[in-house]
Write a sequence for this structure.
């Protein structure tokens, strides 16, 4: 284990000592010739020197791959930070402040891409993806999942980290360690919260080879996770990979041919970008990423099983940790009552009805937290808005409208206008 | 005959509408809980709209299209209210040039905005009299109003001045011939919660449809973009089609846009040879730079369209010049997709309509308007180069 630095400012006894553990970032962009990817921590260490946190001490550590947690860790709170991120001056204080006393939670910070940054299509796409990722977390109705930790900016009380077994050093890949920890934390009922003020900036640009390498790596990691955690089996986890059509089969059945083809198609992306043919660029980019992901998936596990996108479980793994429990709720008694019931029961999924009419379902999501009441309105406002509007109309025309207590002017309107 | 413009809350529909003599129909904006949810054209007979007919028309509009986007917005904003997220600070800028009678009406509307401490900037572009300044001084007695004189001619030069002078995170722009709704500013600001959103536009409805020119403007070049909130980014929308985003009469920008994508191009828009296109080009640059623009119909403003046919023809010519001038600028920036957009504009919009207009078909854009726009399209690129040359000369003279 190497200890990068220890900073002590004026001690204030009411602030806990904090250990910042620098991680090898799973999503690090290319860093040019310096090649400083990983836990060298140049920018992170620089940023940590500027912290405004008045401390019991900030201890900065870099773990070895074989360690669950460096033995010299002294902090009461562990902040995990990608070594390539440049934390804002209030970063540590924001992480500390977001932990409610005794709550035992995981706080996820905001790893924000620099603006303005490079304007090539890959950088723009990656920046938008990360911004959307964190924007979703800021929404009140966000349903946290284990891969929300992939930004490599989160904090956990040391006691909780040890109780959950920490990172698993038998996993070779740091990304797999982080995500595996996330799965176990959620399975143990640990709440995740997001602290937007715990921000750290990414300085470097993304380049296509890095993105594809990360996708390939993510494919391998997903196989490992699926082998360990039964609920994640048979499901591509990377964003967009589930939308891959023939690419997945072709990539896994004829890897050499598709590797060659993918390599040959890469220069075409640059041509499409120069011509600003965005639609064609996006389709090709998505296909290359799908290919990279599925090649990673194939190289990560048992080929016959992989070909059918099914990963066999390892013995003694958490096959039943996410056995989904779906309940049914009618919105008859109003949104508040439905929200209360979700808070009480915490199901994995819910089917929503209005009287006898089915509105739709918030499905069980492997690797995500169980549903809370707060998830209901955001789901109704987005993917279920159409079915809800239709159900409200039908119900107001056919059903026992007097029993509805949804505080909705629309409902009143529909009732008013009913013949 | 003229068209009456009505603003109705669908939960409190009147038994009937009277006193609409001189109008043969009415355009009604339908609000639900204060939020625009749809619109409907209603026949006026002897100055009256029948109550039953009104309710039936409203019910069909709301059932068909109004409920889902409204419901989504209602639940989403309901959820947002629970987060307690605060709105960004804002300045309202009105860029004007020698139109005190319009500006007065606009200022009266701005005085009715919910007071969140916003400052109102009046940017007086190359004024020929003191009238605008006097109006601003009078308004400053009621609210925080600041008068700025900008002597570089051009709407975009005035907009840039407003962005430079504002001290807030967001600057909302209203034209002097627009009348913003009391909830306009807050509705715009709510959309800046995503860090990639640099621009927000709102629904612009006609303030009046009293003349044939105003009716035709609303038919062929309406400012409204519907009743659903739309998020634009370059992944889903070609930046060359930025006109779908909205109009400069009702828009807001993050002030950091100046740093991220640069200022408005002062060679574009009114007061320059290009006559229009300044807002269009800026929206296009927002998308091309990987940022987003949002159209939110909850941000409502009313616009007084050109009253005379000659003004309308000039406006159509100006829009033609402006859009092709804006595309020329984008092309110079390397945005090759404008070539496809320009060809598409001609092929799908102008060429099919032209023979019908020449034959005098009813229901088609009148021939003189179409030809004016077409002439503008041809003149656009040259107007842009002329405008740039003019700017360079002006700067050189100043130095």
């Amino acid at each position: 284990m190497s200890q990068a630095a220890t900073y002590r400012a004026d001690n204030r006894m009411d602030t806990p000592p904090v250990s910042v553990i620098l991680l090898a970032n799973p999503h690090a962009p290319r860093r040019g010739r310096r090649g400083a990817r990983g836990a060298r921590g140049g920018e992170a260490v620089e940023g940590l020197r500027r912290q405004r946190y008045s401390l019991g001490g900030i201890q900065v550590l870099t773990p070895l791959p074989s360690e669950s947690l460096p033995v010299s860790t002294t902090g009461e709170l562990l902040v995990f930070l990608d070594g390539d991120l440049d934390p804002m001056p209030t970063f540590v204080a924001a992480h500390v402040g977001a932990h409610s006393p005794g709550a035992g939670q995981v706080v996820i910070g905001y790893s924000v891409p620099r603006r303005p940054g490079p304007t090539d299509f890959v950088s723009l796409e990656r920046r938008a993806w990360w911004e959307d990722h964190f924007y979703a977390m800021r929404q009140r109705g966000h349903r946290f999942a284990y891969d929300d930790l992939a930004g490599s900016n989160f904090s956990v009380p040391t006691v909780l980290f040890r109780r959950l077994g920490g990172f698993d050093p038998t996993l070779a890949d740091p990304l797999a360690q982080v995500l595996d920890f996330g799965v176990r934390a959620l399975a143990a009922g640990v709440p995740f919260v997001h602290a937007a003020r715990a921000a750290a900036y990414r300085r470097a640009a993304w380049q296509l080879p890095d993105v594809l390498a990360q996708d390939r790596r993510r494919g391998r990691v997903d196989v490992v996770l699926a082998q360990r955690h039964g609920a994640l089996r048979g499901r591509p986890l990377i964003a967009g990979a589930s939308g891959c059509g023939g690419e997945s089969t072709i990539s896994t059945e004829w890897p050499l041919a598709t590797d060659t083809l993918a390599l040959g198609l890469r220069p075409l992306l640059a041509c499409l970008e120069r011509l600003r043919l965005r639609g064609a660029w996006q389709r090709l980019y998505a296909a290359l990423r799908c290919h990279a992901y599925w090649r990673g998936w194939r190289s990560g596990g048992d080929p016959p099983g992989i070909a059918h996108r099914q990963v066999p479980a390892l013995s003694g793994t958490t096959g039943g940790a996410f056995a989904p429990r779906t309940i049914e709720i009618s919105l008859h008694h109003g949104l508040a009552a439905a929200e209360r019931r979700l808070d009480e029961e915490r199901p994995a999924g819910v089917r929503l009805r209005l009287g006898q009419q089915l509105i739709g379902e918030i499905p069980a999501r492997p690797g995500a937290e169980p549903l809370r009441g707060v998830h209901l309105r955001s789901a109704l406002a987005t993917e279920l808005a159409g079915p809800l509007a239709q159900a409200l109309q039908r119900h107001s025309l056919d059903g026992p409208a007097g029993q509805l207590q949804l505080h909705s002017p629309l409902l009143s309107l529909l009732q008013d206008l009913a013949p | 005959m003229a068209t009456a413009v009505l603003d109705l809350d669908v939960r409190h529909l009147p038994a009937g509408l009277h006193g609409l003599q001189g109008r043969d129909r009415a355009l009604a904006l339908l609000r639900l809980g204060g939020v625009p949810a749809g619109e409907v054209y209603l026949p006026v007979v002897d100055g009256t709209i029948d109550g039953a007919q009104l309710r039936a028309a409203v019910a069909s509009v709301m059932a068909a299209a109004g409920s889902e986007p409204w419901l989504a917005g209602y639940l989403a904003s309901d959820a947002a209210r629970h987060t307690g997220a605060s709105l960004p600070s804002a300045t309202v800028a009105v860029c004007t040039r020698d139109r005190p009678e319009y500006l007065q009406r606009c200022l009266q509307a701005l005085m009715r905005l919910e007071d969140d401490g916003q400052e109102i900037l009046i940017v007086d572009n190359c004024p020929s009299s003191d009238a605008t300044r006097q109006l601003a001084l009078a308004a400053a007695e009621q609210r925080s109003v600041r008068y700025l004189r900008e002597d570089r001619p051009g709407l975009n030069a005035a907009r840039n001045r407003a962005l430079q002078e504002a001290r807030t995170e967001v600057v909302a722009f209203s034209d002097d011939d627009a009348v913003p709704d009391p909830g306009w500013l807050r509705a715009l600001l709510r959309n800046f919660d995503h860090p990639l959103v640099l621009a927000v536009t709102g629904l612009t409805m006609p303030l009046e449809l009293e003349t044939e020119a105003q009716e035709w403007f609303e038919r062929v070049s309406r400012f409204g973009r519907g009743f659903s909130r739309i998020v634009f980014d370059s992944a889903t929308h070609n930046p060359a089609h930025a006109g779908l985003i909205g109009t400069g009469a009702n828009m807001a920008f993050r002030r950091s846009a100046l740093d991220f994508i640069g200022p408005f191009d002062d060679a574009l828009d009114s007061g320059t040879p290009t006559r229009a296109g300044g807002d269009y080009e800026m929206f296009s640059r927002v998308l091309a730079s990987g940022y987003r623009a949002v159209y939110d119909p909850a941000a409502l403003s009313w616009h007084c369209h050109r009253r005379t046919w000659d003004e309308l023809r000039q406006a159509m010519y100006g829009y033609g010049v402006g859009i092709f001038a804006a595309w020329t600028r984008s092309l110079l920036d390397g945005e090759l997709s404008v070539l496809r957009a320009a060809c598409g504009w001609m092929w799908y919009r102008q060429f099919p309509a032209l023979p019908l207009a020449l034959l005098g078909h009813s229901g088609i854009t009148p021939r003189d308007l179409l030809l004016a726009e077409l002439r503008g399209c041809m003149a656009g690129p040259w107007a842009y180069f002329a405008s740039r040359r003019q700017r360079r000369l002006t700067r050189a003279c100043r130095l």
Summary: Chain B touches chain A at residues 10-11, 32-33, 55, 58-59, 62-63, 67-76, 78-80, 82-83, 193-196, 233-235, 238, 256, 259-261, 289-290, 334-337 (CB under 8 Å). The first strand of chain B starts at residue 2 and ends at 9.
